[in-house]
Amino acid sequence: MLTILPLPDAPEAATTLLMEALEAARQPSGVLPRDAALAVFRRHLTRIQHHVREAFEHYQLTGLESARALASLTDGLNGALYSYARSMVNATEPLAVVATGGYGRGMLAPFSDIDLLFITPESPPPETLAAVEFSLYFLWDLGLKVGHATRTVAECIAEAERDVTVRTSMIDAREVAGDTALFSQFSIRFSAACATHTADFITAKQVERDLRHRRFGESPFLVEPNIKEGRGGLRDLQTLYWMTRYVFNTRVMGDLVGPHSPGGGVLVEREAKHARRSWDFLWTVRFHLHYVAGRAEERLTFDMQPVVGARMGYTRHGRQDGVERFMRHYFLTAREVTRITAVLEPAIVRAALGPPALEETTDAALLAQGFVLADGKLLAAPGRDFKAEPIQMLRMLQIARDRDLALHPLAIRALIRHDRLAAELRGDPDAAAVFMDLLTGGQDGARWMHVLNETGFLGRYIPDWARIVGQMQFDTYHVFTVDEHTIEAVRVLDTLDRGELSDVAPIASGLMEDLQSRRALYVAALLHDIAKGRGGDHSELGAELALVIGPMLGLAAEETEMVSWLVLQHLLLSQTAFKRDIDDPKTILDVVETIQSPERLKLLLVLTVADMRAVSPRVWNGWKATLLRELYARVAEVLAGGLATTERDVRVIRAKQAIAAELADWTEAERSYFLGLGYPSYWLGFDPETHLRHARLVREAQATGAPLTVQAEPLPARAVTEITVYAADHAGLFSQIAGALAVAGASIVDARIHTLTNGMALDTFWVQDAAGGAFDAPHRLARLSVLVEQALSGRLQLSAEIRRVGEALLGRRMRAIHVPPRVVIDNRASHTHTVIEVNGRDRPGLLHDVTAAISDEGLQIASAHVTTYGVRAVDVFYVKDVFGLKVENDRKLASLRIALAAALGGPDDLEAIPVPTPPRRRRAAPV
Questions:
Q1: Which residue, 70, 163, 288, 622, is most buried by CB atoms nearer than 10 A?
Q2: Secondary structure of 788-838 in the HEC alphabet?
Q3: Judgement on whether residues 22 and 110 belong to the same structural domain of the protein
Q4: Structural domain boundaries enclosing 337
Q5: CA 470 → CA 219, 335, 490, distances in Å?
Q6: Does 610 share its domain with 669?
Q7: CB atoms within 10 A of CB 596
């Protein structure tokens, strides 16, 4: 076992210690063999890494301080290696060892590359090149990742002019060891070369950043952010640093504060402070990520978030988990970085290119409104100060929309620097009118809400909005933070309004054309999650807030009431469609009783579509659209005074008449036999086309005497495949089929179970593949049929097979999210069935385990409704006892709850990754 001795705090003392160890390793002849030297360097590198990690994890150093300490100690190692390498190859000619990139800035992450540039004289002798080669192989043998280049000064300049990436890395060039005169010659020539390419460099950095954002995410609020390359991450701050270094020759943001600073004070002290704080926070997160992952990990994934948050001291506070508090701090930091960019970059561009060119063609009307055009973009006119006219901040956006103009970067900077003035506009009817016009007056309200949110205006204007900025929900269902999700919902309304979603959401798109309460709909979308994170039911709390915010935005009393109702009920349709049996008359009547008017139904459907599509690209699919469409149609029918839902007999007769017409070529005996097989629930549960398929399936099974028939029908329009199983009914049949489907890799999204009058079961499952599409590959469908047959015959060991599939699919990242098991039994949701709702972690075989528990309790399952929200499964079952009655015995219900709770855990239940208790925080040295 390697004993790690303490390392002196001073880098110079650590280097001296290394040199002494090298001298002690020399042989009596004075020779220091490479293997002996490598062992000394390896021990020293281990001590460096251990020293920095210990200091960081015991809060003696912040992330930024640790990065600087690691770089400084690495300098000593490279300096000693330079001397040793030259002595080993007898090199005497000048050679400069230069740190570039992040290492050149004097910062290193635990597992980052070490970027080195070896500067040689013109026509270097073989001994010099041999020293470079010796050093590189030595560093690789130490296990370090080294980015390297060997060039003359002329080659450095030429390469920097050809490649902006090389030029960027050389901006931070710093001498580590070797010939100072050679490095000085490079520095002078490089600085002179850079002075002639300022505009090109800034443009290249902007293009590079835009491409990077498109690759890693345009939003800084993605729930699994890349802290280095993502928007609002370290690379954005580094890009600003490169620009300021290039233009102003500064090294820290503080150098840009004050009238006598380079650029004449392009930053105020508050902004420089935020930049320093963001820089240090992101470096601290990065160090934790590297240490936890044991590699250069830059993505803050779900499994990393609770561990890193706990290591940084974030614990549960009230109803908010520590990981949610940590991630909110991260997202607010990311937003701060985007705001610093918007403030500083225009000043850098102006310093490089000169003041904006005010266009003489600006028309009198625009000037009268207080604005001008600069570089073709909208900007406040000189002399028109937002401090004197705060409403001009909103009017500027309104004019930009009406004239189809882009906002000038200086205008964005002005919005950010004056965001606090938004508080003065609360209660101002003129400001409210402009705000509502931005939200609802065009077909791009989300664009302007996004601008107001990123500049900070929205949180100042609506204080309750500020509480959801950067707030995440720790699950895999939501892709965005609450504020970004909300603005995305407004964006979906805009696309519906423009008719761009008529293919995927035809009813909602059509309804947008004649809504009577359009303003209420948009405000409801803006406020539907405004109370998230406060504890309690966010719909109820949000409805109360809407009653206060509505009048502030200039809504009339009836509009405010509508907004409040929509916020209160914004989950009604989705929860009913995905968790209730819409063939049950009581389900429809309960919804009708709550909604009461066709206009409310229209508004609620459109809001539901917007909310669902704004959650994540994978949440909306053809199957869910079908369920919502069917629910909407049935509720609308009752509200319109059409056929009463309770007149089941009439609907059953009509269903039988429709299928009888399709079976005209059958004998009377065959038709009568099939029409007598189904109970009313069967005839009401399917359309005539499905009834026809079932009729043919039953007829063929009887003709061949097949004990089991499995039929698959892909339904691409609904993004599902319908699996129909016709077999002798017995206890546990549903569970066995569900298990076989899980082993086959099919995800069940809905199910109907029907026992026919001949004692056979006709069970229907709607399944999807892992990507949320129809399960329709021929070889997979064939395997599915075989697995169902093997499961029903007892030849398939379901538990073992499900465990194997689960281990392959349930990754560490998903296990990090805790999903508490929950069982709800409701005897009021249906007149004829007991409704069971189970919540738990989704996993292969969950439906098999839960339905097996229900069957073991002696209950019959009539229908199952399966919904997943990320890793959380919400499964609802309509059940009866063996006598065909509801389950109302208290002892039976208690036993059922215990059995279901056990099934939700299951044999494959995997606990979340353990989160260590952080050591007591010590105050870090100031940055």
A1: 70
A2: HHHHHHCCCCHHHHHHHHHHHHCCHHHHCCCCCCEEEEECCCCCCCEEEEE
A3: yes
A4: 200-353
A5: 11, 8, 17
A6: no
A7: 12
